[in-house]
Amino acid sequence: MYSYSTTFGSGYGDHTIIRGTRGTLYSPGGEGSPQWWFLAETRSGWGSNVVFDLKTGKAKPELVTIPGNSEVPPVDQDDNLKYHTDDWFECMRNRKTTHGNIDTGFAHAVAVVMATRSYREGKKMYWDRKNEQILDHPPA
Predict the structure, then answer these.
(1) Residues facing 128 on adjacent strands
(2) How far is it, in rounded angstroms, from Cα 46 to Cα 21?
(3) Rounded CA gap, 93 and 39, in Å?
(4) Per-residue model confidence as pLDDT tens digits over 42-52
(5) Do 13 and 42 belong to one domain?
(6) 28 touches 35 (CB < 8 A)
(7) What is the total count of domains within the chain?
(8) In terms of domains, do 68 and 92 share one?
(9) 39 and 103 share a domain?
(10) In this structure, are residues 25 and 18 in contact, taking their beta carbons and an 8 Å threshold?
(11) How confident is the model at residue 128 (pLDDT cuts 50, 70, 90)?
(12) How many whole angstroms separate alpha carbon 54 and alpha carbon 5?
């Protein structure tokens, strides 16, 4: 599962979280940050209301690094939030389309779904523009 949320001005830091069945990957720097940590899931909570339990104290976060590189990547990468927010306000004032519009979001979502399917199915995926479908063979 991939979840995105924001609190803008009243936020408690910026981070990205990807939750899985074996653990959670999180980036304390948010979009653009090369620093990622892995926290192993210590027990399955699917049979209860507690799905993610950090209180067990058994798992410790591990820095995710490239093999052979123990250097800790920086956290302070910029995702251009000010640029995007300014663009959004300007477009609201002038009734223009934002740089990151619905079409851009759709294209990004398709790319993520294609990458996930390609990984899981072990084959190349193709985009059929005309029919807006993901295919496992080149479109006709």
Answers:
(1) 133
(2) 10
(3) 43
(4) 665 555 555 55
(5) yes
(6) yes
(7) 2
(8) no
(9) no
(10) yes
(11) very high
(12) 20
Find where tokens 């995007």 sit. 84
Range of the domain at 32: 1-75
DSSP state of 10: G
Question: What ranges in 78-129 are assigned the alpha helix state H?
Answer: 81-94, 102-121
Tokens encoding 17 = 């979280």
Domain boundary among 75, 91, 119: 75
**Cross-strand pairs, 125:** none
Give the distance between the most distant pair of CA atoms in the chain. 55
State the chain's mean pLDDT as an integer.
78
- The two three-digit tokens of residue 132, written as one number: 């807006």
The answer to whether the beta carbons of residues 123 and 134 sit under 8 Å apart is no
Q: Which of 32, 49, 75 is the last residue of a domain?
A: 75
Rg, C-alpha atoms of the chain = 19
Instruction: Return the structure tokens found at 63.
Output: 């820095």
Q: Which residue is it, tokens 């523009």?
A: 129
- Both 35 and 88 in one domain: the answer is no
